[in-house]
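Could you help me review a protein record that somebody else here produced? Do not assume that whoever made the record got everything right. The record follows directly below this note.
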Amino acid sequence: MRSGAKVAVIGGVFVLVAGGLGYGVYEVVLGGGGSGGMGSASSEVKTGPPDKKEIEETAKGFLEAWASGDASAAALRTNNESVAEPLLTGYAEDAHVTKAVISPGTAVGAKVPFTVKATVSYGGKTKPWSYSSELTVVRGETTGKALVDWQPAVIHPQLTEGASLKTGEASTAAVEAVDHNGKVLDKETYPSLGTILDSLRERYGDTVGGSPGIETWIEPADEKVPDTTLLTLAKGKPGKLRTTLDAGAQAAAEKAVKQFSEASVVAVKPSTGEIRAVANNPATGFNAAMQGTQAPGSTMKVMTAALLLEKGLVTANGPTECPKEVLYQGRTFHNLDNFELPASSSFTTSFARSCNTAFIKLIDDTKDDTALAKEARDVFGIGLDWKTGITSVDGKVPEEAGGEAAAQYIGQGTVQMNALNVASITATARTGTFHQPVIVPQSLDDRELAKASRSLPGGVTQQLNDMMRATASWGTGKAAMASVGGDKGAKTGSAEVDGQGTSNSWFTGFRDDLAAAAVVQSGGHGGDAAGPVVAAVLSAGS
């Protein structure tokens, strides 16, 4: 704890304001000791959940000690003293918080919410900083005492294991990210871009002519993860960073994913591979749209159809069997609700109605269980180490055999994709040629982009487009795509997940020179949840 003389120079105070817990107001010069005790001594070791009185007293003691700047006393009131104390100490010494008003709210069970209105000072610059967090009171496993369950998020909700709060001159220069038309992109307007803009700044901040400012940030434990800026005390000179994003499409994407608790969407320009929109809900943290890995369901049939068309096993208008179910090497596959189609139905109808069995019945005719994995790599660029400009995962279609290979044909089994990968697959189907997705121009850093070894034949590309048009016009994508104008096509998907009651909803589509894909976790049928997300982005993009 700091000495009184040092405190006098800093002149900082912490103020703890009474709230729902019903205790008094404390105003303590930073470095002064807290008065909250640990409770009366008792030889009895209590068990069971803390009661209301214990929760109030424990929260009071912790917050009072934190407010007084006594990190050791505050840490003593947690169930992980050795880990808590450095972070609590760093709140003043590393984050340079010189004043904070902590206002606790009413306890809800063992959880006590509170707000922090702080002042951060560094290098002659001062700025207010407000946020909310919460603490949980638990029973100590060995002592039986009521203690704060220590999590870094107690100090700040975005703080994670091993990370720390810092204030100072930023390690990289500021950037002003703009879309392809020059419109400014910021975290406040486009929350999903928060981690993406941080990553772009980390990579390109020192190359676009800017200078660093003074900031408060979260420094993660993993050096490969970019810092997260929480507060800017003094702006540096930002360098302009032009991205491939489109502000209109991005705004539509942000709005569309907010309808669901967990959803992602990406839009890509087929003729160039330029990423026009990326959005996730939740918007903070993991960029699932570009880094996620999960089965894509029947959206994979865009690629499978390309394979079957290339091998001459089907034509868009030729007849294809679609029975209720099919047995392949000991594994039974069926259609949704066990539907079947007349024997005279075309392959386009099976595609537009999303018939699983029509695709799986043809796997033997390819005479190569690994044919789909090769198609994924050689034509669609899946697994070729994409260099988009930020961290991304480029999909996986492993070489499999037997029933596992059959499952891949309908986007199940070991196939792993995210919204970016599926949007890129549709973009490739649209033009016949894979263009590796990018979020900043290649010319920015001359990085080497992935290239597929071959394009689709023109006739296959035309048939694929026609089949996707049929899906959007009268197939499973009709309702979702009804509001989309122009030349449009689609493919729906539902991906079953072990232990999950409702399948994940997938949808991909195109409108003119824009392709998009979305996934909604536990959203059910592709057209019902993910479909409207894709439609909204396609309608807004350019």
In short: The longest strand covers residues 125-139. The chain is about 25% helix and 20% strand. The CA atoms of residues 227 and 379 lie 37 Å apart.
